Amino acid sequence: EVHLVESGGGLVQPGGSLKLSCSVSGFTFSDVNMGWYRQAPGKGREFVAISGYLGTTLYSDSAKGRFTISRDNATNTLYLQMNNLKPEDTAIYYCNVLQYWGQGTQVTVSS
Questions:
Q1: DSSP string, 47-100
Q2: CA distances from 7 to 55, 65, 77 (A)
Q3: What is the dihedral sign for C-alpha 28, 1, 92, 105?
Q4: 3-state DSSP call for residue 6?
Q5: Cα–Cα distance between 6 and 23 in angstroms, integer?
């Protein structure tokens, strides 16, 4: 059974940083692409970043230059380092692989 569990969200002031983690079990982590998505209040889920199993990365325009996606294949963990956070980054952040989603972790950016 596939499980994805996100953690690391919280309340942070504008300009601050957070590092999200996604612990994965139930499949061969190193063989798949994995991504982060987010859903802000009243909006649809949107793409944030993807980590390809061949080492490539891709970012949304809003994440580019501020967020870094990484993965540790030894521990089956996906990360999202978020720097220079803005109020518009407030959302529930989800990790994704294939058709599987975690439960999400709340990120709130507010002074």
A1: EEEEE-TTS-EEE-TTTTTTEEEEEETTTTEEEEEE-S--GGG-EEEEEEETTE
A2: 23, 22, 11
A3: negative
A4: strand
A5: 6
22-49 pLDDT per residue, tens: 999 988 878 899 999 999 999 999 999 9
Tell which phi-psi region holds residue 104, choosing left (phi > 0), alpha (psi between -120 and 50) or beta.
left
Cα distances (Å, whole numbers) of residue 61 to 16, 46, 50:
19, 11, 13
Largest Cα separation within the chain, whole Å, is 41
What are the residues whose beta carbons fall under 8 Å from the beta carbon of 38, sequence distance 6 or more? Answer: 45, 46, 48, 89, 91, 92, 93, 94, 107
How do residues 60-85 score in pLDDT, each as one tens digit? 999 999 999 999 989 999 999 999 99
